[in-house]
Input
Amino acid sequence: MTAESVESGERPDQSQLFIPVVCGSVRKNRRSYGACELIAQRVEAAGHRTELIDLRALALPMYDEEPESEIMPAVARLREIMGESDASIWQSPEYNHSFTSAVKNAIDYLDEELRRKPVAVAGLGSLSGGTRAVEQLKLVLIELHALPTRDSVAFTDARNMFDAEGKLQRPEWIGRIDLMVRELAWYARALKWGREHVEIPERR
Output
C-alpha cells in the first residue's frame, strides 16, 4: 500500500464490474443453462457486465498439458475472459456428490486469470440443490488462489425450476442470487483495489 493512497483516503471505485458466468453442464437435456441465464440477468440488473461461458459450446479439449491443447482457440478464449474478469460465478449441477468433470477441466486450464479474484459458486440438484458440489468446488478454487465467497445459490427441485414456457417457478431465488451478486461485487472491488495498491507477498 502506498503512503499516498493512505493519506488521500483512496477507496475502491464503484464503476461497473465484469462478472462472467460459467455454465458447468454439457449434457443435452441440461437444466443448468436456464439457471445460468437467470444468474447472468441478475448480474446485469445489478449494473455489471457479464458473459455467459457455456462449456458445452466452448468445447475445451481435455486438459493434458500438451502444447497443441494450450494454443487452441477455445482455451485462449476462456483465459481471455477470465483474465479480464473482476470476479466470476461458476454454476454446476451435482453429479455423484460432486461438480462436473467439465468444470474441473476448465479450471485446470486457468491459473493467474483467477488469482486473488473472488468467485461465487451456484449448485443445482434435487433436494440438496447441489450443495456438496458447491463446497467441493470452493476447495478446488482456493488452490488457484481464488477467493470463494460464502453466499451461494442452491437451485433445488431443478426439474420444476421453470415451466413449459420458461417462466421461473421459484421467485425467491431472485433475492438469493441478488445477495450473492452484491457480496461478490463487494469483494471484487476490494480485491481489485488490493491487487493495484497492496504489495503481494513473495513465496520463499
